[in-house]
Give the backbone structure.
Amino acid sequence: MKYQSVFDIIGPVMIGPSSSHTAGAAKIGKAARNLLGKQPKWAKIYLYESFAKTYKGHGTDFALAGGLLGFETDDTRMSKALEIAKECDLTIEFIEDTSAVSHPNTARLVIGNDSEQLELVGISIGGGKVEITELNGFKLRLSGNHPAILVIHNDRFGAIASITSILAKHEINIGHMEVNRKDVGKEALMIIETDQNLGEKVMNELALAKHITQISAIVS
Amino acid sequence: MFRTAAELVEIAEKENILISEVMIRQEMEVNDKTREVIYAEMERNLEVMEKAIEDSFQGVQSVTGLTGGDAVLIQDYMKNKTPLSGILLLDAVSKAMGTNEVNAAMGTICATPTAGSAGVVPGTLFAVKDQLNPTREQMIRYLFTAGAFGFVVANNAFISGAAGGCQAEVGSAGAMAAAAIVEMAGGTPQQSAEAFAMTLKNMLGLVCDPVAGLVEVPCVKRNAAGSSLAIVSADMALAGVTSRIPCDEVIGAMYRIGKAMPSTLRETGEGGLADTPTGRLLKEKIFGAF
């Protein structure tokens, strides 16, 4: 089921005017920031369908910027997020894209700094709830309901075991797990939803595991 | 977990508990939280709703100037005249509109189920409150009952205008409110389902056609319509009137109608009222020529 909690229906507390276009957009921006692990220096944001047609009126642009700045949906600075981004040396470009997409509220975010970048596709499915459907070209379905870690690794034997054994050692339960790869022996992605948030210590240990190139956490 | 309204009602009847209690117990189990934590979270939502209504009575104005001030007009009218539709109903209307005026003015609101439809549930709650004199706990329960039915709609159809039109937003919100009013007034779980069905039935086909793509026109006034329909449907259900088409089948119909709606009528601001001469003129004034 798409919705798991009554607070997806009665909530979130947010700054208006639109749960899909403002609150949802802020959450997508924040997910991208969390995945990069820090505030980006630049962002190219492609908007589709309803997002593309109405983003100026709904404040989708400042909400996405607010998310990239790490704002929660009820942050009263939200409507000033574009100005704040400028002050923080975060350059954001919005592009209205006419390509066909499967959900009317879709955004593609390419964000980065001098040394790294990532590309994420998020959809805002209603009531402020979002799903991350693509990361760096990998298809995925991340609800954002639970804490999750995303692990970019080399497609070698033992890579998955090296991660799961560390989680087992710290008694962290895996609720859902997916593994995707671009090609045999190439870059691959593990998505692991856990029941509790992982501490810094566990994250550091995971980052040093075998065949792991990048790891990031989405805190629920 | 309950998937349908029929299952929700069945659990409540079998265990002899309220709809709100079914929702609270499920929330505790699925999300591994205590009753106290869940109550506290919902109480915070209630406080945000109350504050938004208070703010709106001071008079608010959106950045575009398209909306604001109507809640105050209605409150003044209620004080100075005898409203034809009755004090309770008009009070709900003014509080629903007020909440959405605050939303349009980029104030803080609680989405129920969305921001565009955020006025209906609190508007009706803070209006029926004056007649039913609920405890604070009962007011929190009102939100769980509304949430339980919204949960069914969200998982079986949609709650966003972009996905299913305004029937999915204000339609769902009105139906959720109707179900919650019935519980607060002492009706049965089945009567809540009947009130839900009768509200949503009368919202079927409602398109999402916001002028200039903004959550202002006609959203604020649709919240007025949604809240008044919720109160009327709740009264009908409490009187013993039932819906010939069961609740879940009404939700199914809403889903298929939404799927058949062209994208111009699903929150793109391209059709309906947005595409009237005045609608286009307002858009031009606000954003300049496109």
Notes: Chain B has a mean pLDDT of 96. The beta strands of chain B are 108-110.
